[in-house]
Design a protein that fits this description.
Length: 102
């Protein structure tokens, strides 16, 4: 299920959610979304949508991207209203499990 870009932009544009990160402009955001999709296709990144199981709402993004020599970087952004509720542990475990099979 491909989510629309508006839900993602709203996540990235939220000042509380992005308190420690730069809020991208709309054009930068669109560039990043396309780049992430392209990197997924070529196998150099594994972006993950974090969807709330009960509501079906996008509550965050996560994933890995290749840096070099088989090393990867992990990142996660969770909407402020869903932080401190245990989602990070679940997402981290799922991503590690996936990475271990690759």
């Amino acid at each position: 299920d491909v989510r629309d870009d508006e839900a993602y932009f709203n996540l990235y544009a939220d000042a509380e959610t992005m308190a420690f990160l730069n809020i991208p402009s709309e054009s930068d955001f669109k560039y990043r979304r396309k780049m992430n999709r392209d990197k997924f296709v070529d196998g150099s990144a594994w972006p993950v949508d974090v969807i709330h199981q009960d509501s079906g709402k996008l509550i965050g993004v996560s994933g890995f991207r290749t840096i070099e020599n088989g090393e990867a970087e992990f990142g996660i952004i969770i909407a402020k209203s869903y932080q401190r509720r245990g989602f990070l542990k679940q997402i981290w475990a799922a991503c590690l499990n996936y990475a271990a099979t690759r």
